[in-house]
Structures are given as structure tokens and as C-alpha cells.
């Protein structure tokens, strides 16, 4: 019996040991499952900004295509949280344009963010921002647990929009080793920031708002309704408190924009997108004429394109600043893109990169003529109020002549710059068709408009000097203005009723008007006719090309004396003076008389208008007001003037100049 009991005990012990081993094995398997959970990486779109995600540290997967410039990035290495997360990853070099996993970690806001071009992405500068982030490879750090879903600053997250399930972020059980969530208001920020006010784009109008319309508010003033989601206070240059989240709009619920739903909290940063409007201190309309001839070669053509891209970046292109177009020439010129095609430096640089070489000869003169006649037009984006500048790039020397084409360009108000690369050596000068071609082409031969580059590899050194000169609008001497773009013919009454003393007063009036203009053979030119019953050409437009010479010629005009045939004098001036006017000049006739004409003035005045002559009629003493209005260009109130005595003629000078310039500025520049 004892043996049986012992056997039973052994069986029980054996069974217990089996159960124990089985349990331990099961616990090990369960432990394995608990310790090694499968980690699911959240996916986001290219347009998701770091500031919309509350999690302080997380791993996400970016799709392909985030190198696109529409996904804006602010900063270098450390990025403002208003940046595209995936765009910043591409800029930093952690990802390429094919996408992938990244690790994102939030850090403190910076006092400034510097833009840069890296890995195909141009990041922008930003004065300051309340929160930043850094990006690294998407490898989990040992001992840190990352969220399997992201917590967004609104219940309507991008994931929910795409039909995904978004879970609330929960702190993992391992204390001290896990990225902790940051309170919502801490992420949104409470720091007061002072800075100068920047004009920023308005958000698109609401299509789906149910609580309020987005009414514009004056810049620099508070909105009538404050969005409690936005706690950051900005101060503008007038120390007026503003709320960046609602500047230019009322607060309200989330609204619809092209491309999808915008969370309510995004309203707090929607209008802060710092889009450059261009440098207003450099408002010019610029055409680059690039050399696409076969002799330049592919390598130097690429260097030339890089130079253009560098200039575009340095200029800060925008509608309130410089605009830039490109014409490529070879045998024949062609516009690659005009002034209004690209309105910022980033788009412009992308377009420059796509330019392909055309080949052929180096017909620079033909290209300059093309630009003068076609490029600077209103339909191509010419603004009229901005100086016209053409920068001509030449490899070696042109294969045609440039002098006449350049003269016409200058007379049309175009400031021509020349950049000559690897000019002709002494042995090569025999092949140059037009010696000293650059000086014959540029606006002025004072060295301001010319660059001579010894070799293509040093071309980059010209970027900053060129930009500085282009933007120095006060020195752009060839810009077409009301004071440098006319042929002005004075028609002077020398009849007996005027008298010698009063005639000298009239000549002084003519001189005072002439002093106001920029006089040269390519700027404003002056001519004069004196009349009685007969007519006499005192000097034509092509006789005197400097202001001192013109003023001396006026002083030397002798008093004639006789009758008053104003109609015949107008016909004479049209034939002997204005027929020799240049086609690109405004033709101005300024007629001074002291009495009624003995002959008809109606038909001659009509002929003058038909021939494009703008007539100003100045009457003194006994001049007939109704006749002055017939002679003057319509409207007569702007072109006909009367004074009761000769000594008051000087009072008319400012008004005549003002009306000439007002009329000029209301017309197309070319």
C-alpha cells in the first residue's frame, strides 16, 4: 500500500511539473507578444504643417512628391512649425522626393528663420515663430514609445478627412521614456511678439462657413470678434495690437477652401503666409537677352542659366518690385517668358532651368530690335510706371550690327546693359563686325552699363554689382519720361504788336520751359519757328543736342516784326519741323501769340491733330480765347492758356509742364 501511495504522489508531482512548464511557456509567449507589438507608422500628406500636430515627438510616413514648391518651408535645419513637415524633410536631405519615414521632434520657437535652397526645395525666411521642429531619419529611439496615431489641433484632422480613424493620443505606460504630449494652448503659443507689419495674403472666402462671413478688416486693427483659439498677440509698427489669426477676417467656424477642409485653428495662421510681393525699392521691368548661339556650347549655356537664376533670387521678384522676362537669341530671337508669366523668384528660377539652347548665330542687333518692338508692351506685362531695363549677354561678339537697333531702344526708353564674356583677343578683333559694339549699344558710355567678364567661370561675381545697378533707378538715364521723350517745337509770334521788349520776354518764357526738359539727341529735342505774315525756321530738332546750346540758340533769336498769320505758321511748322521728328518721340507744339490770326486756323489745327502733334496754345493780351481753343488739342482746358500781359507768362510754366507730364503718364510708355 505504501508503494501505491508513493506511485500516486509521483504521478501528481509529474503532472504538476508538466502544468508548471506549460504555464511558464505560455507566459513567455504572452510576454513576447506584449513586448513586441507591431508598430504602425501614421501617414500624412505633403501639405500637413507641424503646427497642426500636437504630439511633441512622432514618426510619420511622407508620400512622394513633397518637393513641390507649393508646400512651403520656412527655415534651414530648424524649421518654423508653419512649414510643411514633409517639405522640410526633403529640404533637410532626410528624404528625397520619393517619400519615406521621418522622425519629427518639436523644439522652441526661434527669433528668426533663414531661408535657403537645398535638395530642390527653396525654403523661405521668417522673422520669428512661436514653435519649431527638427527632422531626422525615421528610426525609433531606444526606450521611446511613439504614437501610432497623431493628435491634431482640431477634431477634423487630415486623417479624418481622408476617411481614416484618428485616435486620441495617450501617454504610454513607461514613465520618463516616452514623448509626452504638450497642452494645446502651449502649442498654439502665448508669447507676445513685436515686429514690423508685413502685408500678407488674405485667406480665400468661405464657402461653407455657417457662423460668420469673412469680412475684410483694416490692416493693423483688431477684428471685432476674437478667435479664442489664437492667443498670440502681435504688435505692428504703430504699436497697435493685432491678432494674426483674424487679421483681415472675422473669426468663426472652420471654412471650406480649394483643396479641402480647413480646421478652425488653422484660421489662426492662415493669413500669416509670408509671400513676397517683391522689393519695392527695385521696381523695374527687366528683360534678359541670353546668348543661345551654337558657339557658346552646352556647358557655358548652363553657367549662363545659373547666372540668371542667381540674379532672379537676388532681385526678389514680385508684383510690387522687379519683374523679369527672358528672350533667347541665336539666328532669331524668341521670348522664353514675359514679364507677367512668373511673379516670384522661385517660379522664375524653375522656368529658367527648363530653358533649352536654340543654337545658330549670335544676332544681337536683331534681338535688341525684337525686344524694343515686342517685349515691353502692356500685353506682356509692362507696367508703364517702372523703368524698362534690358540686359544683353554676349559670348565673344555679335554676328550682326547693334548700333542702330540700340539707338532706337534707348530712344524708346530702354536702359541697355551689356555683359560681354570672353571678348575678342587682339588676334580675333579682325573678325568683329562692329568694333566697340558694347559702347555703341549701352544706354551711356560711362561704364555704369557695361560689364566685361574675362571667363565664364567668373560670371557669378557679376551678380551683385549688376543687381545693385539695375535697382539704382535714379541712375537709369534712358528711362522714358515726360521730360526726356519728346520733340518740342515752339511757334513764336513775331508780329509788330508784340514789340521788341515783349519779344525778349517771350524768348525768356521759351527758355524757362526748355530748362525743365532733359535735352540730348536721344532725349527731348527742341526746335523753333518764328512767324509774322511769313515764317522762319530758327533751328530744327537735330541742330542742338545739349541744354546750354539750346538756351543760347533761343537767346540769339532776332525779333522779326510784321503781321499775324497763325494758320500758315502751323502748316509751316508741320512741314519744316515736325516732319523730321523721330517716330518714337512725342510731338509737342507750343504756340505763343498775342492776337487774332489774319488767316484760318481751323484746318491747320485739324491737320496737326491728324499727324499726332499735341498742341498747347498760349495767348497773351489781345489773343482771342475762342481761337486758342480751336488751335489747342482737346480738351482745351488742359492745352489752352491765357495771360493778360507778357510779364505774367512765367506763371504759366509750371502748369504747362504739369499738364505735359500728366498726359504722358496717362499714355502707354511705348
From TrEMBL:
Keywords: Disulfide bond, Extracellular matrix, Glycoprotein, Neurogenesis, Repeat, Secreted, Signal. GO terms for cellular component: interstitial matrix. Residues 285-470, 487-656 form the VWFA domain. Residues 167-180, 207-223 have a biased composition (Polar residues). It comes from the Eukaryota. The keyword Lipid biosynthesis does not apply. CDD domains: vWA_collagen. Residues 154-181, 195-223 are annotated as: Disordered. Residues 40-133 form the LCCL domain. Residues 1-26 form the signal peptide. The keyword Secreted applies. GO terms for biological process: extracellular matrix organization; nervous system development; positive regulation of cell-substrate adhesion. InterPro entries: ECM_Assembly_Org, LCCL, LCCL_sf, VWF_A, vWFA_dom_sf. It holds the Pfam family LCCL. It is found in: Secreted, Extracellular space, Extracellular matrix. SUPFAM superfamilies: LCCL domain (SSF69848), vWA-like (SSF53300). Binds dermatan sulfate and chondroitin sulfate. Promotes matrix assembly and cell adhesiveness. Plays a role in spinal cord formation by regulating the proliferation and differentiation of neural stem cells. This is Vitrin. It comes from Phocoena sinus.
Amino acid at each position: 500500500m505504501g508503494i501505491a501511495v508513493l506511485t500516486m504522489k509521483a504521478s501528481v508531482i509529474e503532472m504538476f511539473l508538466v502544468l508548471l512548464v506549460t504555464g511558464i511557456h505560455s507566459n513567455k509567449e504572452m510576454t513576447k507578444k506584449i513586448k513586441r507589438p507591431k508598430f504602425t507608422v501614421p501617414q500624412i500628406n505633403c501639405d500637413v504643417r507641424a503646427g497642426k500636430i500636437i504630439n511633441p515627438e512622432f514618426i510619420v510616413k511622407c508620400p512622394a512628391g513633397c518637393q513641390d514648391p507649393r508646400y512651403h518651408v520656412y527655415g534651414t535645419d530648424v524649421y518654423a512649425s508653419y512649414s510643411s513637415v514633409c517639405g522640410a524633410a526633403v529640404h533637410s536631405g532626410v528624404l528625397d522626393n520619393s517619400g519615406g519615414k521621418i522622425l519629427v521632434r518639436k523644439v522652441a520657437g526661434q527669433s528668426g528663420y533663414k531661408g535657403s535652397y537645398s535638395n530642390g526645395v527653396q525654403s523661405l525666411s521668417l522673422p520669428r515663430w512661436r514653435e519649431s521642429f527638427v527632422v531626422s531619419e525615421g528610426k525609433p529611439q531606444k526606450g521611446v514609445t511613439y504614437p501610432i496615431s497623431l493628435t491634431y489641433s482640431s477634431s477634423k484632422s487630415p486623417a479624418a478627412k481622408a476617411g481614416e480613424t484618428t485616435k486620441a493620443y495617450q501617454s504610454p505606460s513607461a514613465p520618463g521614456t516616452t514623448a509626452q504630449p504638450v497642452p494645446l494652448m502651449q502649442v498654439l503659443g502665448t508669447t507676445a511678439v513685436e515686429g514690423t507689419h508685413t502685408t500678407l495674403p488674405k485667406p480665400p472666402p468661405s464657402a461653407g462657413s455657417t457662423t460668420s462671413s469673412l469680412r475684410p478688416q483694416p490692416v493693423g486693427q483688431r477684428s471685432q470678434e476674437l478667435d479664442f483659439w489664437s492667443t498670440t498677440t502681435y504688435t505692428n509698427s504703430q504699436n497697435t495690437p493685432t491678432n494674426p489669426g483674424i487679421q483681415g477676417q472675422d473669426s468663426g467656424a472652420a471654412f471650406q477652401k480649394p483643396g479641402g477642409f480647413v480646421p478652425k485653428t488653422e484660421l489662426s495662421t492662415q493669413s500669416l503666409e509670408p509671400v513676397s510681393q517683391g522689393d519695392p525699392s527695385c521696381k523695374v521691368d527687366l528683360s534678359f537677352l541670353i546668348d543661345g548661339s551654337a558657339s557658346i556650347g552646352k556647358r557655358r549655356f548652363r553657367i549662363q542659366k545659373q547666372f540668371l537664376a542667381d540674379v532672379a533670387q537676388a532681385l526678389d521678384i514680385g508684383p510690387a518690385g522687379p519683374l523679369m522676362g527672358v528672350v533667347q537669341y541665336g539666328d532669331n530671337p524668341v521670348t522664353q517668358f514675359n514679364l507677367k508669366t512668373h511673379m516670384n523668384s522661385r517660379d522664375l528660377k524653375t522656368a529658367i532651368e527648363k530653358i533649352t539652347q536654340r543654337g545658330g548665330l549670335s544676332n544681337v542687333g536683331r534681338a535688341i530690335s525684337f525686344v524694343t518692338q515686342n517685349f515691353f508692351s502692356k500685353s506682356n506685362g509692362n507696367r508703364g510706371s517702372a523703368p524698362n531695363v534690358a540686359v544683353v549677354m554676349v559670348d565673344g561678339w555679335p554676328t550682326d550690327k547693334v548700333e542702330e537697333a540700340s539707338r532706337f531702344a534707348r530712344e524708346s526708353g530702354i536702359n541697355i546693359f551689356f555683359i560681354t564674356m570672353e571678348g575678342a583677343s587682339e588676334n580675333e578683333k579682325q573678325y568683329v563686325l562692329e568694333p566697340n559694339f558694347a559702347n555703341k549699344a549701352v544706354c551711356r558710355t560711362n561704364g555704369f552699363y557695361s560689364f566685361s567678364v574675362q571667363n565664364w567661370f567668373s560670371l557669378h561675381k557679376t551678380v551683385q554689382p549688376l543687381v545693385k545697378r539695375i535697382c539704382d533707378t535714379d541712375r537709369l538715364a534712358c528711362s522714358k519720361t515726360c521730360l526726356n521723350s519728346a520733340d518740342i517745337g515752339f511757334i513764336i509770334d513775331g508780329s509788330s504788336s508784340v514789340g521788341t521788349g515783349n519779344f525778349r520776354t517771350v524768348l525768356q518764357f521759351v527758355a524757362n520751359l526748355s530748362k525743365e526738359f532733359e535735352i540730348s539727341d536721344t532725349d527731348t529735342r527742341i526746335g523753333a519757328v518764328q512767324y509774322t505774315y511769313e515764317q522762319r525756321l530758327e533751328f530744327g530738332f537735330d541742330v542742338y543736342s545739349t541744354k546750354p546750346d539750346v538756351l543760347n540758340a533761343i537767346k540769339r533769336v532776332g525779333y522779326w516784326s510784321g503781321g499775324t498769320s497763325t494758320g500758315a505758321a502751323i502748316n509751316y511748322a508741320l512741314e519744316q519741323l515736325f516732319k523730321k521728328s523721330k517716330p518714337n518721340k512725342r510731338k509737342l507744339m507750343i504756340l505763343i501769340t498775342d492776337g487774332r490770326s489774319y488767316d484760318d486756323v481751323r484746318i491747320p489745327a485739324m491737320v496737326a491733330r491728324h499727324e499726332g502733334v499735341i498742341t498747347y496754345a498760349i495767348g497773351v493780351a489781345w489773343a482771342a480765347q475762342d481761337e486758342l481753343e480751336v488751335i489747342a488739342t482737346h480738351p482745351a482746358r488742359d492745352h489752352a492758356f491765357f495771360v493778360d500781359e507778357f510779364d505774367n507768362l512765367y506763371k504759366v510754366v509750371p502748369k504747362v509742364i504739369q499738364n505735359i507730364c500728366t498726359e504722358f503718364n496717362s499714355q502707354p510708355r511705348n
